[in-house]
Specification:
Blueprint (H helix, E strand, L loop, with lengths): L27 H12 L12 H9 L2 E2 L5 E10 L1 E3 L14 E2 L27 E2 L11 E3 L4 H7 L4 E15 L6 E17 L7 E3 L2 E3 L10 E6 L6 E6 L6 E5 L5 E5 L4 E3 H7 L5 H8 L2 E7 L2 E5 L13 E2 L6 E3 L7 H9 L4 E3 L9 E2 L15 H8 L5 E4 L2
Antiparallel strand pairs: 1-2, 2-7, 3-6, 4-5, 7-8, 9-10, 11-12, 12-13, 13-14, 14-15, 16-17, 16-22, 17-20, 18-19, 21-22
The site of one zinc ion has 9 residues, from loops.
């Protein structure tokens, strides 16, 4: 084969009868190029494209507190320490070739002709990497340990990642809610170490060489699957980014939620965290609620399509003509319901047995709590209560 990368580890014997005419591509170059583009470490912040790490930072920032009086903006990031041997000349910009004619910093991968003509000013000025006045060395990425040392000593092949951020804080007027700038501070902070890729396209973590293998990813969305044979379904929310939310029932029919496959907790706790604070709000999320009101000892239900089929306990007369629309002990049919609606009757009295199995939704101090069974003991207390209240049927 032509141009084949020399294998330094083992002699490769070619038994093929037909000679290769196409050079073997450098497969590792794909990995190296990809990671290089991800880091953009040789580029100055203003030269960076909105990809990779740069895009990730820009996506997350700005971060603000929940009162919105402080905000953290991302300005730029820097990877690794770039300096000469003696450490007097620093900065990634000094590691790059520069035209002494026009002062343009050449792109790190710019190819020049042998004559080194500046592509920006077309002059024959010298294009060179600045050298340190003191040690005569050029600026390079300083590595604490080489990949070989990392492998031998059990270190991670990485360089520090620093980000420059801007903290802005405001003062909020408690009355007018107007924001007034308090102070702005810019600072470079150490963000952590970022692994580097070796020439072989690998990473070294704690002395172990590893490669990144692309993984199948669950498609984001909402999924339902039948629960374990009990006639219910289990839901799962898989977002593009962030925690998975899985719902499941236990043996006692309690609904639990699991975030990111960790410990499960009650779904009601989860709903409260989302802002559905009271039992009332949670019950109305799960069940159809009915509005009831006591008038002179009779319990009236607010007219609702869902009451069709229930038994009526008091006759209903037309508010204007005083004609009986609905006699006692009759089932509320759809036809009757429409008649009542047309006559603008808004409440009907239903047979007390229709309240069997009802659960209180509205919380009435000293009378009933939400999520409480409505039984006969409660009935007396409720009869004294003049306001409408809501119930549901689990
Ligand atoms: Zn130096
Ligand atoms: Zn130039």
């Amino acid at each position: 084969m032509l141009n084949e990368t020399k294998n330094i580890y083992r002699d490769r014997i070619d038994f093929s009868k037909i000679k290769g005419v196409f050079p073997m591509p450098d497969m590792l170059a794909i990995q190296r190029k990809s990671y290089k583009e991800y880091l953009q470490m040789e580029l100055l912040p203003e030269e960076r494209k909105d990809i990779g790490l740069q895009a990730a930072f820009k996506d997350i920032f700005p971060v603000s507190d929940f009162k919105e009086t402080t905000q953290l903006d991302f300005i730029s990031y820097a990877i690794g320490n770039w300096e000469c041997k003696c450490g007097r000349l620093k900065g990634v910009e000094n590691s790059r070739r520069k035209c002494s004619g026009c002062g343009t910093l050449l792109p790190p991968d710019a190819e020049l002709t042998e004559k080194e003509i500046c592509p920006y000013c077309n002059s024959m000025k010298t294009i060179e990497v600045p050298l340190c006045d003191h040690c005569g060395d050029r600026v390079e990425l300083k590595l604490k340990y080489s990949p070989h040392e990392c492998l031998q000593k059990g270190y991670t092949f990485s360089v520090p990642l620093r980000i420059k951020v801007r903290l802005i804080s405001w003062e909020k007027d408690p009355v007018s809610k107007a924001k007034r700038l308090k102070h702005i501070k810019e600072q470079e902070v150490y963000f952590g170490d970022i692994p580097l890729m070796t020439e072989k396209g690998t990473f070294i973590f704690n002395g172990i060489e590893r490669v990144v293998v692309s993984q199948l990813q669950r498609s984001p969305g909402v999924f339902f699957r039948p629960g374990d044979g009990k006639g219910f379904f289990i839901g799962k929310i898989i977002p593009y980014r962030g925690a998975w939310v899985e719902f499941e029932y236990d043996g006692k029919n309690f609904l639990y939620v699991r975030l990111d496959r960790k410990k499960k907790f009650l779904a009601s706790v989860f709903l409260r965290a989302l802002g559905f604070g009271s039992n009332e709000e949670i019950l109305s999320l799960f069940y159809q609620t009915y509005t009831l009101v006591f008038k002179k000892g009779t319990l009236y239900w607010k007219l609702d399509e869902n009451l069709v089929g229930k038994t009526v306990s008091a006759e209903v007369v037309h508010p204007k003509t005083k004609k009986v629309i609905m006699p006692v002990r009759k089932k509320l049919t759809r036809e009757l319901f429409e008649k009542l609606q047309a006559a603008k009757v808004d409440v009907v009295a239903l047979s007390p047995k229709e309240l069997e199995g009802a659960l209180a939704v509205t919380q009435i101090p000293d009378v009933m709590d939400s999520n409480m069974n409505i039984d006969e003991d409660l009935w007396e207390k409720l009869a004294q209560y003049k306001e409408p209240f809501e119930v549901c049927f689990p």
